[in-house]
Amino acid sequence: MNQFYKFVAILCLVFTTTSFSYAQQDFQGKAYYQTKTTMDLDNWGGRQMSEQQKKQIMERMKSMLEKTYVLTFSQTESTYKEEEKLEAPGSGRGFGMMGSFTGGAQYKNIKDKQMLQEQEFFGKQFLIVDALKDLDWELSGETRQIGQYMCFKATAVKTVDEFDWTSMRRRSDRNKENETKEQSKDSLKVETDSTATNSTGKDFMSEIEVPKEITVTAWYTPQIPVNNGPGEYWGLPGLILEINADRTTMLCSKIVLNPSEKDEIKKPSKGKEVTRDEYNTIMKQKMEEMREMYGGRGGRGGGRGR
User: Fold this and answer.
1) What is the pTM of this model?
2) Strands 248-257 and 114-121: what pairing?
3) Per-residue exposure over 29-51, b if at least 16 CB sit within 10 Å of its own CB, e if not
4) CA dihedral (104, 110, 111, 115) positive or negative
5) Which of 17, 25, 33, 284 has the fewest Cβ atoms surrounding its Cβ within 10 A?
6) How wide is the angle at C-alpha 86 spanned by C-alphas 85 and 91, nearest 5°?
7) pLDDT at 249 over 70
8) Hey, which residues does 119 pair with through a beta bridge?
9) Any residues with CB less than 8 A from the CB of 218 and at least 6 apart, and which?
10) What are the tens digits of pLDDT across the range 38-86?
11) CA–CA distance, 155 with 114 (Å, rounded to integer)
12) Burial of 166: CB neighbours in 10 Å, binned 0-12, 13-18, 19+
């Protein structure tokens, strides 16, 4: 049945390609996405707060949880950037560590399967170079209208990056117990690797967990037959107009095809070039430094005076 849905989507793609003439080399489009990440304050100890306190905290975090991005795309390349706007004084303050997980401009090359992302972390500029990861999309016959576009549904299971703050949540007591057992079994391995021991950031991240996998739901339209979408998402026979991934929704609110003034889609080049794994290791090391600097909780920082 999935092959049938795929066939229907490809047919739509062929017909719309004929009508819109997307084959031209200078074709370009812009899609604007409203993104929103929900956060359950009760899960983070918010049960002790009044409703007014919760409201104030969510208002301060709004600039981090709700953003607008612009995807500028051609047939094979794209850039995905946050739309610049003037923030209200004090918005987002006090969440610098979590805010540092948010990436800068992102570049995708569908043909070469390459993804580049600018990232500033504690005042240092990095350029994360990664392969464009494939998702095993399962196509569905379910449809819905988004604006003037007919969209098809697709789902996939995605591996979550360990520092994806949008999926971070407070660790349950049961998970803590299970992790303690796993650490006990792997203790010999950890002890033989001093770098892993010093950079895990367990004290800093002891209350946080990130799911290993999440189910992603996408809505794509064959009426715009480009193999692209917001953020890291791609690989469907049409532009992805909506993504629902864990607690984050990305919804396209505006599309401009073949604008009179086209933007150059170019690879970002600023910053020290690192892989995603190397960047995550740097983050872990920085967390360990912070833990030692502020004394930690029963960790090595508390015993510096020896």
Assistant:
1) 0.73
2) unpaired
3) bbbbbebebebeeeeeebeeeee
4) positive
5) 25
6) 110
7) yes
8) 126
9) 137, 153, 154, 155, 156, 229, 233, 236, 240, 242, 243, 244
10) 876 555 455 566 666 656 666 666 667 889 999 999 999 999 999 876 5
11) 22
12) buried
Distance CA 231, CA 70 (A): 10
Q: Exposure of 130 by Cβ count < 10 A (0-12 exposed, 13-18 middle, 19+ buried)? A: middle
- Two tokens, residue 106: 């992102």
pLDDT of residue 52: 64
pLDDT one-digit tens code per residue, 130-165: 999 999 999 998 999 999 999 999 999 999 887 776
Beta-carbon contacts of 60 under 8 Å, excluding residues fewer than 6 positions away, are 90, 91, 92, 93, 94, 95
Please compute Rg for the chain using Cα positions.
Answer: 22
Q: Residue 218 burial by CB count (10 A; 0-12/13-18/19+): exposed, middle or buried?
A: buried
Query: For residue 246, what are its two tokens?
Result: 């864990």
